[in-house]
Amino acid sequence: MEMLFLGFETAAILAERNARRGFRDFVPTVINDLRQATPSRKSILSFPLEELGLEEEYLDVLVPHGASRNSHSALRYHRIGGTLPENSFLRGRGNVFISSPELTLLELSLSLDEYSWLKLAYRFTGKYSADINETYGLAERPPLTSVTRLAAYFCTAREYGMRGARRSLQLLKHVRDGAASPREAELDIALSRPMRLDGLGCVHATLNSRVSFDEFAASITGTAFGSIDLYYLTARYGLEYTSKEPHEWKLPADIARQKALEHMGVEVDFVTTRQLKDARELELVAQKVSKKTRGYWRPDGLSPIEQRQAFLDALLLERQFPSGAGNLVV
After folding, report:
1. How far apart are the first and last CA of the chain?
2. In whole angstroms, what is the distance from residue 216 CA to residue 232 CA?
3. What is the pLDDT of residue 313?
4. How many CB atoms lie within 10 A of CB 86?
5. Burial of 27 per CB tally in 10 Å (0-12, 13-18, 19+)
6. What would the pLDDT profile of 136-186 be if each residue is shown by its tens digit?
7. Residue 247 pLDDT exceeds 60
8. Which of 27, 110, 161, 285 is deepest in the core (most CB within 10 A)?
9. Pairing mode, if any, of strands 89-91 and 96-99?
10. % of the chain exceeding 70 in pLDDT
11. What does the mean pLDDT of the chain come to?
């Protein structure tokens, strides 16, 4: 029985679509090798690609080591040999398989730049997908995986001797679960990145943490809790990302929520797009975070301002990677 295995850029897009559809299209499978994967272009095109929103050009096809391929085809072949760790694939209808989020990130560590990989990892472990048809260009969905699951998979992959496992484990140290937007992820990356790597050296925040309200706070907002984009629990201090300037965001709901959080003993500051993009302004944000969480701020380890600005520019740059399911935008 022939099977079609799809990976990496293509699989990333399909996995996000799958999460938005309640994980109905692709489900876990015990299959963890490519022995029945077809390399034949004719066979591949006989699968229901159109139903999955796929095209031949840039379609990422996984085949066993040693499999022949059509060098004139627009398909992109990726050769993988041997038995892979458990949870390497998800199975769809008609014997179409995709690489799991864990295998996808591992393999993409070999081709993506560091910042694109980190942002994609935050997205996979977060609760959002890019969608130009949705408000603010984002669609809410369940996480595809978690930092814990990724770490377990990468460790097993390292034991299997898989390329990319060591780099994936190193990069994963800088990832946290729970992001609800790309800017939240980028803000956490920029603040927590070590100073020696042109970051600001703050501790990682908990992303979209919920603060339970007492009766009075709940009466102010009409909700039982408040969610904070970046929350530093021990300091009872949080950051909220906003694309607006301070004089623009003070809507009644914003004011009520901030009053409720203040009543609960939680201080919240807002970080704007302008601050996130400017190395000097973001340093002031980091200074307060560090004083709140550590009790001090030591700027002597900071890189020169030009290097930190170059890092921010590279981090915030949106990149596109073609696939058989459309462009993967990170």
Report:
1. 36
2. 23
3. 98
4. 15
5. exposed
6. 788 899 999 999 999 999 999 999 999 999 999 999 999 999 999 999 999
7. no
8. 285
9. antiparallel
10. 96
11. 93
- The DSSP-derived string for 122-160 is HHHTSSEEE-TTSGGGEEE---S--HHHHHHHHHHHHHT
267 membership: H or E segment, kind and range: strand 267-272
pTM attached to this predicted model: 0.93
> How many CB atoms are located within 10 Å of the residue 242 CB?
17
% of the chain with per-residue pLDDT over 90: 83
**Distances in whole angstroms, Cα of residue 10 to Cα of each of 58, 69, 196, 198, 287:** 8, 19, 34, 32, 41
Run of H or E residues at 244: none
Predicted confidence (pLDDT) at residue 314 exceeds the cutoff of 80: yes
Q: How far apart are CA 157 and CA 324, in angstroms?
A: 26
Using pLDDT thresholds of 50, 70 and 90, give the confidence band for residue 65. Answer: confident
Q: Give the chain's largest Cα–Cα span.
A: 69
Nearest alpha carbon to residue 305 among 198, 203, 201, 190: 198
Residue 187's SS3 state is helix
Which residues sit opposite 138 in a β-bridge? 130
The two three-digit tokens of residue 54, written as one number: 């796929």
pLDDT of amino acid 73: 79
Strands (E), 4-115: 4-6, 27-28, 60-64, 76-80, 89-91, 96-99
- Sequence letter at residue 69: R
Whole-angstrom distance, CA of residue 64 vs CA of residue 134:
39
Task: Report the distance separating Cα 314 and Cα 321, nearest Å.
Answer: 16
> 241: which 2 tokens?
């990302």
pLDDT of residue 316: 98
Q: Is the dihedral of CA 324, 146, 167, 113 positive or negative?
A: positive
| Cα–Cα distance, 192 to 104 (Å, whole number) | 25
What are the angstrom distances between the C-alpha of 252 and each of 243, 269, 271? 17, 17, 19
- In single-letter form, the type of residue at position 93 comes to R
3-state DSSP call for residue 176? coil
Give pLDDT, residue 317. Answer: 97
